[in-house]
From TrEMBL, chains A, B:
<dbReference type="InterPro" id="IPR009057">
    <property type="entry name" value="Homeodomain-like_sf"/>
</dbReference>
<feature type="DNA-binding region" description="H-T-H motif">
    <location>
        <begin position="34"/>
        <end position="53"/>
    </location>
</feature>
<dbReference type="Pfam" id="PF00440">
    <property type="entry name" value="TetR_N"/>
</dbReference>
<keyword id="KW-0804">Transcription</keyword>
<keyword id="KW-0805">Transcription regulation</keyword>
<dbReference type="InterPro" id="IPR039538">
    <property type="entry name" value="BetI_C"/>
</dbReference>
<keyword id="KW-0678">Repressor</keyword>
<protein>
    <submittedName>
        <fullName>TetR family transcriptional regulator C-terminal domain-containing protein</fullName>
    </submittedName>
</protein>
<dbReference type="Pfam" id="PF13977">
    <property type="entry name" value="TetR_C_6"/>
</dbReference>
<dbReference type="InterPro" id="IPR001647">
    <property type="entry name" value="HTH_TetR"/>
</dbReference>
<feature type="domain" description="HTH tetR-type">
    <location>
        <begin position="11"/>
        <end position="71"/>
    </location>
</feature>
<dbReference type="InterPro" id="IPR036271">
    <property type="entry name" value="Tet_transcr_reg_TetR-rel_C_sf"/>
</dbReference>
<dbReference type="InterPro" id="IPR050109">
    <property type="entry name" value="HTH-type_TetR-like_transc_reg"/>
</dbReference>
<keyword id="KW-0238">DNA-binding</keyword>
Amino acid sequence: MSKVGRPRNQTARRQALVSAAGQAITERGLEGLRIKDIADAAGVSQGSVLYYYPELDDLVLEVHRGAVEGYLESRQRAYESAAAGSPAARLRALVDSGLPSSAEDSLHGLLYQLHRRAGRSPGHAELMTSLFGREVGLYATALEVGAAMGVFTLAASARDLAHGLVALEDGYGLHIVSHNAAVRPERARELLLAQARAVTGCPDL
Amino acid sequence: MSKVGRPRNQTARRQALVSAAGQAITERGLEGLRIKDIADAAGVSQGSVLYYYPELDDLVLEVHRGAVEGYLESRQRAYESAAAGSPAARLRALVDSGLPSSAEDSLHGLLYQLHRRAGRSPGHAELMTSLFGREVGLYATALEVGAAMGVFTLAASARDLAHGLVALEDGYGLHIVSHNAAVRPERARELLLAQARAVTGCPDL
DNA sequence: CAATTGTTTGAATCTCAGCTCAAAGAACTG
DNA sequence: CAGTTCTTTGAGCTGAGATTCAAACAATTG
């Protein structure tokens, strides 16, 4: 028996399809997702889309996974490369990277779109849970480091505070991408920072 | 010219259709919404649904409006009938009425479903904005009354604090209805109360 | 190169749900 | 009651989009 008649670039193709699907979802929403749009965006035929993803849900789940991964990486990067590396700077970096920059922030928009499936699909719920957990982890670490260095005076356990900050971030983010005029990104950022200040007792945030 | 040949119960019918549509959305989600389901739930034919709502979007918007209204009334009621009428009891009532009681809480589920349209439909965005504003109002009033009575010592302006509490509530709520296992209703309630305690300086919350 | 297996295409087909519409029914008018 | 207008129905039409599939095409093997 031979190896593979036509190995090729399955991985690359899948990657391209995931990216194309993400783009399509961003543009027309989850309910407006059409195989044709994915195919067009990826520059292939409809048949090819089905060849790789006979079950469209699998593709959407991949998109979700990719969005979560990418988002987390970007936050991680922001966190690590925070100027000075001071606890305050790091925490500020987290806050800055966690809010949609505007109502049309596409990464946040995509994430909130996909999160909506969580109520009906265990796979998506798992991704959302994992994202939440990892974000809490980031914040908790930042808080603990700051406390250990004596810069922060935590008002409660780092874990609980982190929990709250992430939830707050999500709440504000939801309103921002939903075009709630009463929640402007700048204001949300201010309020989030105020909360961070309050729970850390650190004035220079 | 005569009055109305066949006046009847337009209002009642519309009401029934709105309620049926709400039920259908709750059961199968916004993307799974089918005229047939609405018709069945309302006990009429498909034609009737179109007769009253040639534009399905209008019906969905009505559902949203109704859900927002109903939700707000229930919170208002909870607020007003809070035992003792003490500021602390009132605030607690707000917190209790603002979180989904479980992942399957149907009113909250419906609201979050409909809020998702806000990103693409001004009408829905408006409803969401109005809901947010009114919730902030409720919290702000509760905080101000408590402050005026000397029971609360506000850590910032009542408005900003209320803003934050509502956003936090929404963040937790989102995770609860999304089946995020890390955010259980009981825990969310605890954390939300802790936050309320922190910003009011009132220990008996 | 012949054989084999993986990949791609797009036209044909299937499916489902929205929408149309003519006809029947019901409440009201005078 | 006859006339008028509002309401309701549901079978068929229509269209969009998913799915199928046979045929063409490409990389790899020996």
